[in-house]
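Risk register update: the risk of archive-format incompatibility is retired. Evidence:
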Amino acid sequence: MTAEKPMTNVILALGGNTGDVQRAFTAALQHLQDTGALEDINVSRTYQSRSLLRDDQPDYYNCVCTSRTPLSPLAFLQAAKKTEQLFGRQDKEGRWQERALDIDIIDYGAMIIKEDTLFIPHPMLESRSFVLFPMRELTPQYIHPENGLTIEQMCGAIKDNLDIRVV
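Archived output:
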């Protein structure tokens, strides 16, 4: 008899604005499931919004997924980064640039992690409607583990004016 691996609940945000983004979301999540990094995946609707920079970039598409993982936070981060690259993300893109796929760990087992390469919960969670709105669909009872705010309180305080809409 084999012992089951302990699983941790995770919340991920997926985003992108080049290529067939919705297909990339589906394929990336399937890849993470096929490799054993995720189980029991639930995905929000997809939202479209302007770039945070309000520049001439194409609109972004975003969704959130809840799932479970047997991986440690750092091992999952590595799996997510490899998946981004597999589905078209290039290191030369840099921060705030157009991208085929971005995977952010929003929450990992309600833990608070502050390391050089990993901050959980995601440090910009409270200020991003394109994460909070789809997240509210899947986790309406979510409470931020660090500041104690509910998902409704965070959604109500959003002032990013990104003209976000469901597609």
